[in-house]
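Review this:
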Amino acid sequence: MGKKGLIFDFNGTLFWDTWQNREAWKVMSREIRGTELSDEESAMLNGRTNPATIEYLLGRRPSRDDISRISEAKEEMYAALCLAHPERLCLAPGAEQLLDASKRADVPLAIATSCGADNLARYIEWFGLHRWFLNDRITYDRGLFPGKPHPAVYLAAARTLRLEPCDCVVFEDTRSGIESALAAGIGQVWAVASEMADIETTSKISGVSGVLLDFGDFDLASIEKQ
């Protein structure tokens, strides 16, 4: 039986930061179009890349200057919110337990995230991600991939592990992320019940393997049952 690998979405999955992201985008929305994002809009945009969200807020295709200027302002606000709440500046429940166990079992690990380079650098520093993830196994938004639900980011993440998508397990918290993983042909896709996640929706998506409230509850032996 071939080797299996684990691929993690980051925002809202390994790091439960949906509140901080939504608050920052609400402020940007108010500045751009005079009104905050509704809860429905926030849920719809959750997991999308910055350019995709900016295009939605502007109501037109953004210029490079638009993307750079708005992204920088939003991410500075987001980072300030994260640092203002140190009690929330930690990986998700059970995440370190699962990552440590995977490393001991020689299970290859990857991240597939819609975040950009600046935030990724923050996460590496804040959480010491290099304890578990090699640089070339972290796939992030460099403007090379369409945003989720397009499967490109998960296809790329599987390639970093040198595995077929069907030999990978993905953990996701959003509808668009789950749809991205399923479209990529991922073998198991788990819906993560993080704070503010629409678990009523994600748990019912056809093809979802199950719901995970705590990463420590994930049975590594289950990946051999694919």
Notes: Residues 18-87 form a domain with the DNA polymerase; domain 1 fold (CATH 1.10.150.240).
